[in-house]
Every structure is written in C-alpha cells, then in structure tokens.
Design brief:
Distance between the termini: 40 Å
Structural class: mainly beta
Shape: globular
Largest sheet: 7 strands, mixed
Radius of gyration: 13 Å
Amino acid sequence: QVQLQESGGGSVQSGGSLRLSCAASGSANNRGCMGWFRQAAEKQREWVAHIGVGGATYYANSVKGRFTISQDNAKNTLYLEMNSLKPEDTAMYYCAADLPRHCSGSLDYAYRYWGQGTQVTVSS
C-alpha cells in the first residue's frame, strides 16, 4: 500500500508561481510511475504531467513550458513547479502513483494510488 500526501497549494494571482509536493510512503520500489492530475469544478479530471520510464517527463499541451514535474527518490517526493499560472489552472491537484513496474502515463483510471489533493486557485 502506498500513501500519498500533496501540499503546496494556495491562492495566487495570474502570472504567479506555486510548487506542489507529493510525499509518498515507502520506497520507490513500492510504486511505478507517478503523475499529476487536476480537476476543476464541474469538469472531468485531466492529466497534467507524469514521469515515465527512465525519468522521461511528459506534459499536457495546456501546461507545457510553464509546469515542470520532478521527483526526488531519496525523499520519496514528487514535485510540480508551476509558473506563469493562469485562471484556467484553478483546480484541485492530485498526485498519483502506479503499481510497481507499471506506467499508465496519462490514463488516470489506471493509477492505483491517489492523494487527497491540494487546491490551487489563480485569480485574474
């Protein structure tokens, strides 16, 4: 079992920055690929970014060039650096982890473990 806890959300003005963190229990051997997803009010959850096999990073077009995903395996922590934030980035942000040796990429339904989310609100 892997437990995930997000932090770092908050309220910022358009153009601002935030850094989200996701602390994972256990070691990297207990989980596969990790990613970030978000869900805005009255909208479906959408993929934001993930780290794939070998550490390759992938981003949704809507955040490419503004967000950076990274991980520190020694600290069992996943990060999402968010710059040039826009009001449309407002959402609850979730981190997710896959089963060991699995990498589901942008397929949210395939991830096994989820955090409870952290709210990001961007005002214009």
